[in-house]
Write a structure and sequence with these properties.
Number of helices: 6
Strand content: 25-35%
Order of helices and strands: EHEHEEHEEHEHH
Structural class: alpha/beta
Radius of gyration: 17 Å
Length: about 200
C-alpha cells in the first residue's frame, strides 16, 4: 500500500501544483511562526520552516508522507517578506526593477510514522524588466499580489514583469519544486509514475 500524501499548506497554488502528480492527497494548514531566528541565513530559514510545516502533520495524521514547503525572496542579501498592501508591493517592485531577485524554496518530505525526513532548498532567479511607476501600479491593481513573497504571481500577469527566468524548475517559483519533490518521494519508495494505477 502506498503512503498517503499530505500537503502541509492551505495555498491554492501549491495544491494545484501537487495535482499535476495525479495522485490523491490531503491538505492541512500547518500554522507555524514564519519569522526568522536571529542570525539565520535565508537558506537555513526556508529549510527549517519547510521541516516545521511538514512535521506539524503529526497533530492531524497518524501516517503518511507530509510535504512542507516555504519560500523567501532574497535581494542584496536581504530577505523580502510578503508586502501585505499596495504601498509595500510598489516599494518592492520599484526596488527589483532592472535587477535579479533570487527565490529560495525549501522542500521537506516527512514520514509521520518513522520520523524520517528529506529536505532540500531550490534556488530560482528572476530578472525584472525596467519598470515604470504606471506599470507597477497597474500590475498591483490587477493582481493584488499582497500575500506573495516578492509582490508578484508568476503563474498569472506577473510573468509580464520579467525579462528572464533562470532555474531548474519553474514550479519552484510558484512554491513547490515538483522535480525535486518527485525525487524525494522516490527516496521514500513512491514512484510518481508507477503509482498512477495504485488507487
Amino acid at each position: 500500500m502506498m503512503h498517503p500524501l499530505i500537503l502541509a499548506s492551505s495555498s491554492p497554488f501549491r495544491q494545484s501544483l501537487l495535482q499535476k502528480f495525479n495522485l490523491p492527497f490531503e491538505t492541512f494548514s500547518p500554522d507555524v511562526d514564519e519569522s526568522a531566528h536571529k542570525g539565520e541565513t535565508p537558506t537555513e530559514l526556508v529549510k527549517r520552516l519547510s521541516e516545521l510545516k511538514a512535521s506539524a502533520a503529526n497533530k492531524y495524521f497518524n501516517k503518511g508522507l507530509a510535504i512542507g514547503s516555504d519560500q523567501v525572496a532574497v535581494f542584496n542579501n536581504q530577505i523580502l517578506g510578503k508586502p501585505h498592501n499596495k504601498q509595500n508591493a510598489i516599494k518592492q517592485l520599484n526596488l527589483f526593477s532592472g535587477h535579479t531577485v533570487t527565490f529560495l524554496t525549501g522542500l521537506c518530505v516527512y514520514d509521520i510514522v518513522t520520523g524520517a525526513k528529506k529536505t532540500c532548498v531550490e534556488p530560482f532567479d528572476v530578472t525584472f524588466k525596467t519598470l515604470n511607476d504606471a506599470q507597477i501600479s497597474a500590475y498591483c491593481d490587477a493582481e493584488q499580489p499582497y500575500n506573495c513573497a516578492g509582490s508578484f504571481k508568476s503563474e498569472g500577469l506577473g510573468i509580464c514583469l520579467f525579462e528572464r527566468l533562470s532555474g531548474d524548475d519553474p514550479n519552484s517559483l510558484i512554491g513547490l519544486p515538483l522535480i525535486k519533490l518527485s525525487q524525494l518521494l522516490a527516496e521514500f519508495g513512491v514512484d510518481v509514475l508507477t503509482a498512477q494505477n495504485k488507487f
